[in-house]
Amino acid sequence: MHHAVLLTIVVVLAVVGSAPGLTSGQTRQEGAALVERGRYLVRIAGCNDCHTPGYAERGGEVPEAAWLRGDRLGWRGPWGTTYPINLRLYMSGMTEAQWLATARAVRSRPPMPWFALRDMTDDDLRAIYRFVRSLGPAGGPAPAYLPPGQTPSGPYVQFPVPPGRPAGPATR
Taking the model in full, what pTM does it have? Predict the structure, then answer.
């Protein structure tokens, strides 16, 4: 390595290391706060409702270790059949910058509310990313998308209910 490059790296590290208010304890605290905010956002944004098996049926009473592993329950409609992906595996393979770019550009098939990601702040998206990454990769991939006209082999929700088929009991 050239002496000038090495000297530049040493100077940059010294400046960053001595910057006021940026102690390693505060950095860890800020990181922990971001993870906690991500946990909160995942809960209130409904991510677990689809991406965590049994979450909605159990009123959210699913251990965090089982969160966001994707689901084998398909959502079938005019677009085909979609499956909630394993976010833990998905995000383990991308950088934070890649996640931000993806979240801004994605236009997913239903029922994924991609517009909710679009409308979040960068800080919200970073928090979700940090939380999901804190869980670590776990589980396997969700089933692959099926195009319209193909019937899923596993369980699925028909969305919307085809014409002439009873929708079930009405609730108010």
Answer: 0.78
